[in-house]
Fold these 3 entries.
Entry 1:
Amino acid sequence: MVAAVFMVVAGPVLAQTPPPQNVGVIELQPQPVARVLDVPGRAVASEEVAIRPRVGGIISEILYRPGTPIDAGTPMFRIDPLVQQAAVTQAQSDVVSAEAVVRQARTSFERAERLVGSGATQAEVDNLRATLDQAEAALAGAQSRFQMSELELSWTTVSSPISGIASLASVTVGDLVAANQQAALATVTRLDPIEVDLLEPAVRLQRVLEESRTGQLRQADELTATLTLESGRQYEARGELVAPGTSVSMSTGAIEMRFRFENPEGLIIPGMFLRGRIVFGESDVFLVPQTAARRDQTGAITVMVVEDGHVVQRALTATGSQDHHWIVPEGLEPGTLLIVDALSRIAPGMEVVPVPATVGEDGVVRPTPQEAPSGN
């Protein structure tokens, strides 16, 4: 009688025991992933020159159009050349006069040299030799002043030494300018290529170097970088390292690294703030779908995995992200079954049945199609 009562009571209880929950899983395997660091940056001109006059005078013409590309050697300003032309004429006449003095001194010296011992003494010949030397020196000085005056005349046309985009002029026709004045007449900026200073926190760079030293990171032959514009658009060109950082900023704790990018369309201009991504090399890591993980404010993430048919919670550390996945360098083993579906219906310790699933490029979980049994 007691046994019958026990069977009546226990029967419904045993019948209410739920079956193991089906959960979608993916099998994790380490795979090579580029080791990248996302950092802020600011664009700087690869070349920029301030246009200043080398001679003084009145601006008579402005020869360029502001905001348009110009080539190296393009005339930009013209200074009234009357003063310099007069100096050239004066210097040229001085040369002609000095040449006449040299001819006369040479003739006298050569005549005395032929008559030495008969009509001229050696002392007279020596004096005439010295006079000729002085005349030739005076001619050389006159020729030098003539060349300098011609140079100054050419400097009345102020040209750009580089190719680039010319700014607005800071002077107008009729303004008086001085040689080598402090204020620039205009600036010319080269935009293609453009250079970008990327600010890398020193502590993160030390971590990358440590990974390289221990063999966790396979360093790239050359450091490269990509950019994201302020609009969120991905910049197509890839930059090459120009100069590595050699000091740490006392205010930001960052190391400045300069990269050069092709900029044919002029999308990047000096002073623009950008986001940069530096590629340091490649390392073998696990890619954990972000939809399968929970992340707290400290940056730690937790996931659910299947071990011996039961749910186990794992705490992991992500070093970055890639295409809707967290990059996890350690804390997982090859072949780990990561739960990616039915996460809201499970808890650690529950018995579950793993069902293969897939995670698309968009991060959405999809069941893996099962093969249909073959018919006879």
Entry 2:
Amino acid sequence: MLDYLPQILFALILLGAILFFVKNVSSLKRNINLGKDVNRTDQKDKRFKKMMRVALGQSKMVNRPIAGILHIIVYVGFVIINIEVLEIIIDGVLGTHRIFGFLGPIYDFLIGSFEILAFLVLVSVIIFWIRRNMMNIKRFLSKELKGWPKNDANYILYFEVVLMVLFLTMNAADYQLQLMGASHYTSEAGIMGSFPISQFLLPLFDGMNTGTLILIERTAWWLHIVGILIFLNYLYYSKHLHILLAFPNVYFSNLDNLGKFKNLEAVTNEVKLMMDPNADPFAEPEADEADDVPEKFGASDVQDLNWFQLLSAYTCTECGRCTSECPANQTGKKLSPRKIMMDTRDRLEEVGKQLHKGVEITSDNQLLDNYISREELWACTTCNACVDACPIGIDPLSIIMDMRQYLVMEQSAAPPELNNAMTNIENNSAPWPYNQQDRLNWAEE
């Protein structure tokens, strides 16, 4: 029985990690589904091509070459290296050692590639840490990144460093044990795997006996796989949730031209009714329409947004490319598109926790005013620079416009300048306070 204890323990840890991950995914899905329905299933071919180009191909990341190339290295390296997780899981459940070693030269190539990528990931992550913490890059110094957001980003970098070091240490100890002919580690086919990076760690193991090396290899093996499982479940609480959500977010992103705004169906129908010469302005509403509650205009809380906007809030990487391109932010205005997405996610998480506890959601604490101020909303120039800059198709402007719509159409709370312009448009068919007959008087002067 004791011989199978490691496999039993590993299976329990694996099962627990999977169940906790499924629980988090369920909470994520419930929160996103709080949003209103929006159709993003059209033009499937175009959406798929965009997803392959932007999410998989990282085409928008390289707009900033240094960060983009480093990100691609970490992205590709981390994904490919984790292919070995499949072997680790099988070995952990069955108690085998390098079960794919029978692939021979193919296996050697794979392990060698994993090691080179692990080293490149390690170097890239260190550079990322230096950029984020020592180089005073403006987009990493914004006040919305104080506290948890900054710590979260650093925790992920530390996590990746530790996982890569454990991976190389595990391989180095394994390689040394194979060279020594240790039981359970050797194969009749010879050395299993190629170790172009970890071979340089072998001097650290000089003079160690087989028992000590096995302890080092097993410790690194366990910490590596348990660390990956912890990392997987940490994603839900981290900005790195984009690792899982970037693909669906790009696929379901808006395909319309930037600057094209949606029309409210209710308002459109009212205008059509007003323009219909056959419509009876004194007609009574239909019996089933008399008691209908008019749909709320715009958004004051997360439930008023659509599900894609909520998905985007969870997908936001907090990279700050949107804010660094925002002309309002660059001129000292309070608006930060990144903060809009972060606030939306924070409020959505708060609502999700209240739903989990069975607490009624009230307007006492809502997205508008409690998280996002009116000053931020009205600072936006609607230029779409933030939308264009986002590497994964997030649209902060759509949230800003929905909340503005609520202020104007539900609360009549537009700024005085805008109210004056709208009044002039209504009275004079232009935003200026001049009668149409007097509009060309300037030409006579």
Entry 3:
Amino acid sequence: MQHEVVSPQPLLDVHGNIREPGYATSLVWEYDRALIQAPRWRIKEWDYYYVGDQAHGFAVTLSDAGFVSSLSASVLGFGVEEPEPFQLNGGALGLFPLGKLGLPSTSVRGDVAARVGAADFSFANDGNARHLAGTIKNYARTESELAFDLLLRDVPRDTMAIATPFEKERHFYYNQKINCLTASGWVSWGDGRIEFSPESALAVLDWGRGVWTYNNTWYWGSGSMRLASGDTFGFNLGYGFGDTSAASENMLFLNGHASKLGDVRFDIPQREDGTYDYLGIWRFTDEDGRLDLRMEPVLDREDPVNLGVVCMIPHQVFGRWYGTATLDGGRVVTLDGQMAFAEHVHNKW
């Protein structure tokens, strides 16, 4: 079942549960933090942006997880302009923000700025453009400063929005992915610098708000790319948490127009001992035979936090994608090595 929600409405009912679970192509649900029926330290809110082209990527997050705030950034090289792929990860954690960061209640417009430890970020959104800027001192223990200044434009007609309940009362996840934003700007650190051009760089926003259960594992894949035809193509694939009986979050985008998919499966190769071989070839298929993709990994971005009771263990794998995806109406899109990512994440939070 893929239930599309089209009527604007409050996200939550008086009991703090989602009124109408399902998916949409815009933020038809109105998020109001004051209506959440859960302790403030259980509320999770974040804005995550990834900007990339075929040679480099940059990921930046500003999050308020209730008991901890996080400002983090990752610089990625895919071995195109450097001898080998590389990654740099760094940021800062703060204790018990409890909503004080003031993340916006909508992705349509709104600003947020925060300073935590050595990190100072500002995400400004006037409804037309998103200006991401910030610094991290002693970035990735390099004794140099990371600085970034990026401008994202051209929100497409359709996005992936989903309201997912958990089986546990008053727990929910409200999420939007905006694929294929055009991107320009720069990132610098020490002797390194990346310039992103709108002719080659695209971005995705992962906008999340909700009350999560304690122990979760999820799978997410995202791509924003230009095809040889000149068309802009994106995809959002994922599963692993909550009650998705109303809808999945799987969606394809061609030139800003969405095509909905049902359930999708991630096949991650395993070693003989049963552990995942994240740098082996991943495969992605759907229940209706419309998706047949593989990812040939270039690097596994690992930046784990494991404190026992609390852990955040991500494997965000970047690679070149090949295969086919069939849109609504039957058009087949072929990927022939475009860079995108997929992740397998385990959190206790």
